[in-house]
Amino acid sequence: MMSRISPSTEASPIRGWRDPLLMAGLLALVVAGLAGLAAATGWDETRAQLLRLGPWQLAALLGLSLVNYLMRGLRWHVFARRVGLPPGFLRDMRHYLGGFLMSVTPGRVGELVRVRWIRRETGMTLERTAPLFLMDRAADLVAMALILGAALALSTSGIAGAVPLAALALGTAVVATHSRLLSAVITRTYRVLGRWPRLFGRLRGMARTLAHFSHSGVLAAAVALGLIGWLAEGYAFYLLLVWLGADTPAATAMAIFVFATLAGGLTGAPGGLGGAEAAMVALLTLEGLPLETSIAATAVIRVTTLWFAVGIGAAVFPVAERLSKRKRHAVENR
């Protein structure tokens, strides 16, 4: 018989109104900042740039973003099978896409709601399933670091700080996906702090479960799926710049998109709000694009990537929540 789900595991990853209010505040600041820049350059110029885009072009941008989400969802399914989850492709995709609603929580920790859904439906413990979240983040870092490095090699213009950022992303991913190395880092940190032995004990237990992902075929598949997904969004950014009349090489456009996304993530803000937009506008302007084009491109790509994902999550989340509760009752009554 499956063990009952403890009340503590049912706590929502968003506590009260703190995270939603923080997200709303940051979003308001970003919108205000972009609006201020648009006003400084002239609303008519920015509006004219936005009107260059027709419905089919917006549909193409959304379609390429959807490719990214589906590839990463398939990767989540591969990882889920490695930790011993029973077969369930639709279940895994439902969990992954539904979790996008929480991607605009600080540090994206709200996406751990996927772990809660898995616990409800299968009874698997947090220690067994939490590494899914870690591997998902690490696989994204590997794919984005590789794309950024390749784009920089092919680009005719350099981006200050891009190489160290790519190295940092790749190094973090290596540590996060190597069971023994991560366990050693956790142990060393505990010895330095000398506090919270139970917490560090659980972290070491989670680190040991990373051995499930050490198979070279699994890692190769994960990196390949991540590359396809993030290249699709990077190509969407390149197409957007072309449609807005910019003569930016594809490699440069992809490098700017990936660098800005990683830079936004480093801020720890929900969805990289503020940091990603600022980096993108600045880099596009340094490439010689008019400010109205930089603002329009930044606003559109963030809507068709981050906020499109949040919209998908909002649609799938209630379904995932309802089904997980229904299946939890079935698990408890076994």
UniProtKB/TrEMBL annotation:
Gene Ontology CC entries for this record: plasma membrane
Keywords for the protein's UniProt record, in alphabetical order: Cell membrane, Membrane, Transmembrane, Transmembrane helix
Residues that span the membrane, as ranges: 21-41, 53-71, 141-160, 295-320
Subcellular location: Cell membrane
Keyword Transmembrane helix: yes
Membrane topology classification: Multi-pass membrane protein
Domain of life: Bacteria
Name under which the protein is recorded: Uncharacterized protein (TIRG00374 family)
Species in which this protein is naturally found: Rhodovulum euryhalinum
